Amino acid sequence: MSETLIKASGASLNLSGRTILSNINFEIKKGEIAIFVGPNGGGKTSLVKMLLGLHSLEDGKIYRKAGLNISYVPQKFEISPFLPLDVKRLLTLSKQYSATILLDALKITDSEHLLNEPVINLSGGELQRVLIARAMLSKPDILVLDEALQGVDKAGEVKLNNRISEFSKINNTAIIMVSHDLHLVMKSTDKVYCINGHICCHGMPEQIQKMDEFRNIFGALVDQFALYHHSHDHSHEHGENHDHKPS
Questions:
Q1: Which of 53, 73, 165, 197 could pair with 188 in a Cys bridge, judged by C-beta atoms 3.0 to 4.6 Å apart?
Q2: What are the residue boundaries of the structural domains of the chain, listed by start?
Q3: 156-188: per-residue pLDDT in tens?
Q4: Euclidean distance between CA atoms 216 and 52, whole angstroms
Q5: pTM of this prediction?
Q6: In this structure, which CATH number among 1.20.272.10, 1.20.1250.20, 3.40.50.300, 3.40.50.2300 belongs to the domain 4-76+85-231?
Q7: Kindly report the CA angle at 155 between 151 and 157, in degrees rounded to 5?
């Protein structure tokens, strides 16, 4: 039986006097991939921060395995343009790694060519690739990705998502991913949690897309997902280097 890494029991969160999340029951075990989906403002990012201990609970409990190693890629990561930082330095800010280890991590996200590039010169998608590689360096127990594929073009997004799944299998790393892209996340996850102030519903992808609560939130997108899943089961190797430059 897989080991429980993190577990929320009846957890509730208040911010600025407003209830953001209530009665959250959530568990992730070693090697599992769990995806949080839901409407904007539904509390997905707040739930991640609550699980990580960045927000204090109003009620309930959160269990974290002793010595748990968590890597987190936040939704927004801003670097001062006045900071002379290249990718190699960014990757080694908290711990030193050999050039071989750095390149191996960057290869997972197809960004090894960026090792000596100034961070300020990176596109939005390139920066996300580098940040994901950085989070993988320590081979964490849990890799938390909050909309971490934003800025990556669609074809590259599919490939990068597959690489993240492979990383999980190879290292037995649990993945917690926040995403708005049903087409992408449904293809490579063990559990889907629909968040809208509470956990509306959860289950395996094939189960949750049939649930009324899920269909009420996502409507026609659920049927579009079924079509997408059927007709896009091939590999996307082209177009992976067309990450969007920030406007």
A1: 165
A2: 4-76+85-231
A3: 788 888 899 999 999 999 999 998 777 666 677
A4: 29
A5: 0.83
A6: 3.40.50.300
A7: 45
